[in-house]
Design a protein that fits this description.
This protein is α/β, with parallel strands linked by helices. The chain is 39% helix and 23% strand. The structure holds adenosine-5'-triphosphate (ATP) and magnesium ion. The site of adenosine-5'-triphosphate has 14 residues, from strand 1, strand 2 and helix 1.
């Protein structure tokens, strides 16, 4: 049977990444951060992106958003969003898309927020930048509404305060308020809770899911935590060495795992209380896994409904031939 390769379709996807290659210029020479990443984000879904540190999760998304450091260059590929290739956009157009159609929540709200501007003014600024026609009064009312929506008590008082007067969890709530202020179609959250206490993490994740549903946006959730993925994601993209190695609906990823790297990730079971320890385990377990050098063997092949894996691993997990996998799928 001819293999069915994964292709990202900009006509159905909200964000369609196609073969994105990004390089960094370092003192040691050119380093490839990501090496041909393709995946879709579909309207309204929660897409989890997982992979160990350095696998390319952030560089992929930063390439699409035009937020790479100056040492980085996008070599090739496309990032289609609403009929526009974000990789070809002017900075002016991109900055209109960011904050309006795409809201972003970063790991560390302290560096993302302006320390010398009140929290209310920062939310208002994001509203003003993207809705020049909005009156001051309407803007002020919306700021208070947003603060209250993200669970900040006493919004009128809090709006006047500065980021350092907020706890880490409250600052992250402010970031979420800014991200959803203009009712984006897509929210990107890159490790949104890593810097927070365990008890606060769950609250912020609940908040993200709630606002995602309210705004009707898609959510890309980048995380090391497979427990979080299991609870929140509809689909999952697994990255390793700057490439996607497997992508599947969340149930298939956990119960019909195809790639040894995904299996290694799942094997080092997530513990909500020890991010660092878990990462070390994942890295030691995945060390020694052969990186397939041949580009053809890294193409993603369909192995089940909406389930794709690097073609070198497209045989069934129990070692049966690909044909057996295909017939199983027809029965299902
Ligand atoms: N500023 C940089 N300079 C040089 N290389 C970089 C830089 N940032 C990233 N890279 C390269 O890009 C690769 C992917 O990095 P990226 O930040 O996307 O990883 P990640 O999956 O987001 O990791 P983490 O989980 O630690 O956030 C790294 O392995 C590294 O080779
Ligand atoms: Mg990252």
């Amino acid at each position: 049977m001819t293999p069915e390769y994964f292709t990202s379709d900009p006509a159905t996807a909200l964000l369609s990444l196609q073969e994105v290659v990004t390089e960094f210029h370092t003192e040691q020479g050119v380093v490839r951060g990501i090496d041909g990443v393709s995946y879709d984000v579909r309207p309204g879904e929660c897409l989890g992106v997982v992979g160990e540190s350095g696998s390319g999760k952030s560089v992929t998304i930063m390439s699409a958003l035009g937020l790479l450091p100056p040492s980085a260059t996008v070599r090739s590929g496309h990032a289609w969003f609403d009929g526009t290739d974000l990789l070809q956009c002017s900075e002016r157009r991109l900055s209109r898309v960011r904050g309006k159609e795409i809201g972003v929540v970063f790991q560390d709200p302290m560096t993302a927020l302006n320390p010398v501007m009140s929290v209310g003014a920062q939310i208002a600024e994001s509203l003003r930048a993207h809705n020049p026609g909005m009156s001051r009064t309407a803007r002020r009312a919306r700021v208070l509404e947003l603060l209250s929506d993200v669970g900040i008590p006493d919004p009128a008082e809090r709006a006047k305060q500065y980021p350092h007067q907020f706890s880490g969890g409250m600052r992250q709530r402010v970031m979420v308020a800014i991200a959803i202020a203009n009712r984006p179609k897509l929210i990107i959250a890159d490790e949104p809770t890593t810097a927070l206490d365990v008890t606060v993490q769950a609250q912020i994740l609940d908040l993200l899911l709630r606002v995602q549903a309210e705004v009707g946006a898609a959510l890309v959730l980048i995380t090391h935590d497979l427990g979080v993925i299991a609870e929140m994601a509809d689909r999952v993209v697994v990255m390793n060495g700057g490439r996607v190695v497997e992508q599947a609906p969340v149930d298939a990823l956990f119960h019909d795992t195809r790639h040894p790297y995904t299996r290694a990730l799942l094997g080092s079971l997530p513990r909500m209380d020890s991010d660092v320890g878990r990462l070390a385990t994942v890295q030691s377990q995945t060390q020694g896994l052969a990186v397939v050098p041949d580009a053809a063997e890294q193409r993603l092949v369909r192995v089940g409904p909406d389930h794709y894996v690097a073609s070198a691993y497209a045989h069934r997990a129990d070692g049966a031939e690909p044909d057996a996998a295909e017939s199983k799928e027809v029965v299902a």
